[in-house]
Every structure is written in C-alpha cells, then in structure tokens.
Amino acid sequence: MITRKQFILGAAACALTAAPPVISQTHPVLNLKLGEKIAPIGMGTWQTFDVAPTGIEFEQRRQVLKSFFEFGGNMIDSSPMYGRSEAALGALMEGFDRKPLFSATKIWAAFDQGGPMQLSNSEKLWKEPKLDLVYVHNLLRWEAHLRTLKDARQGGRVRFIGLTTSHGRRHQQLEKLMKTEPIDAVQFSYNIANRAAENRLLPLAMDQGLSVVINRPFMTGQLFKMVERHALPEWATEFGIYSWAEYFLKFVISHPAVTCTIPATRQVSHMKENMQALSGALPDAALRRRMISYFDDLI
User: Fold this and answer.
1) What is the largest CA-CA distance in the chain?
2) Alpha carbon of 129 to those of 34, 36, 66, 80, 184: distances in Å?
C-alpha cells in the first residue's frame, strides 16, 4: 500500500536529499504570451498560506518557500479570497531574493468598484513594484474587472492579465473569452482524473498563444485517496517517476499547452516531492496514454 505521506522509493529519497533537480529541457518552459521562463511547477497558496505573519506556522511556511526557490520554482499564485495568504507572502519574501519571483494574484470582487481596491491592496501586500500576472478570478464580474486590469497593464502596474475558472466550471464562457479578449494567460483545472480541458480549452490556448496555468493538479488531494491502496506501476521508475505526486504532476505539465501547475502544500517534504517532477524527461504522448490507462484501471 502506497500513500503520499509514507512512500517514496529509495532512489527518490536519495534524489530529494541531493542537489535540486535540473528543470527538464524537454519542456517548453519559455511561455507563449508571458514570454519568459517559468518553472513548470509553481506554488499555490489557497488554505496553505493563510497564516498570521508571525509564529510557528509562519516559520514553517518560510521553510516551504525556501525549498520551493531552492528547487527552481518561481511562480507563486494567490488571491484576495485566500485569507491572509497575500500578506503572509509579502512578509515572507522580505527574507528572500525577489528576483526569481513571478507573482500571480487575482481580482475577486462582487462589485465593480471593488476591483481597483483589491488591486491596490494586493500591490501593498505583495510589496512588489509591479505585479507580474493578475487574473479575474472565476470570471466574477469579468467585464468590469478586466477593464481594470487592461488599464493597469497599460499603465505599467501589471505586466500580464488573464482569466480563471476552477472545478471544471464555466468552460464555455471561458472559451468564448479566450477568443475575444486581449488576455495573456488563463488558469483552469486539469488533472489525470479530470481531463475535460483536453477537449477544447487546451487546444484553443495553443491556437491563441495563451499561457496556461493549471489549478487542482491533485484534485485538492482526492487523487491520492484514489490510489492510496495501490502501488505505482513497475514501469514508472524507468521514466524517472518515484511517487504518485510526480506521476500526477508530470502528467499535467507534459501536455504541450501547459505552462505550469500550482500545487499547494504546508509541508517541506511534500514541496520537495512536488518539485522533483521538474527532473528528468517528461512523458511523451504514448507514455501519457499509458499513465491514463493505468490510473483509470485502478479507479
């Protein structure tokens, strides 16, 4: 029986204590619209970084962030709806070199006037002179908030703008906006158990030249519960896959349309396991089909 908490094969354990992995050169880490290198494994902060800027939990998050940067990560995703996450990130980043950071946050406001207020507040909390990427979160009042972001991009306050959805919702609306709005990036859910985005959103993003950030790569932990009584396939280690986390993450980032994915964690050990997915070659189309077949047979 293998679970995320108790199983990493010996070879993977050695790798995690060694030097940080080299980002796979087979992955197109050069973005489409974003036009710069972003590591395919980013970091989400929903629930995990909603902590006070002091105390034991805060120091634990400092170690998580330290591991993230040491292993080559740079995109960090947050939102005003994530409680104290933006404030915690701003305070934590004071102890790190900000050069590698690619900041990504969102506008999530029920009223039009809330957009500019949230954007200004995010700038203060992150303590960044210019936010790298800001989305309209879950398409909430997207017309007004996208106008706010277009103005912010034009004024040099924000480098890139985009739209998000999650849980497989609002795909049709997002698809329409991807075709009609001058955005740089989209964020939506995609994982080995939820492959609906393969039908239209991922191909469309490639056609439109949009960068794609994937949320819920572990389906908020549900994928690990699905496989907790099962071993990895024997052939997995032949392809440099030593844990279910690597299995799930390599599947996501190996899709040619995907820029990066943003798993969230509170634990350094899980962060290291996630970032190990940056090492080695990524699955090709044939291996991706094999990974799907094995997973589908388990569930």
Assistant:
1) 55
2) 18, 18, 22, 18, 20
Structure tokens, 29: 């880490």
281 within 8 A of 239, measured Cβ to Cβ = yes
Q: What are phi and psi of 115, to 5 degrees?
A: -60, -55
pTM: 0.90
Q: Give the N- to C-terminal CA distance of the chain in Å, as an integer.
A: 15
* Among the listed residues 134, 111, 140, the one whose alpha carbon sits nearest the alpha carbon of residue 122: 134
- Cα 291 from Cα 289, distance rounded (Å): 5
pLDDT in tens, 252-298: 999 999 999 999 999 999 999 999 999 888 999 999 999 999 999 99
Name the strand (E) or helix (H) holding 146.
helix 142-154
Q: Are 253 and 21 in contact (CB under 8 A)?
A: no
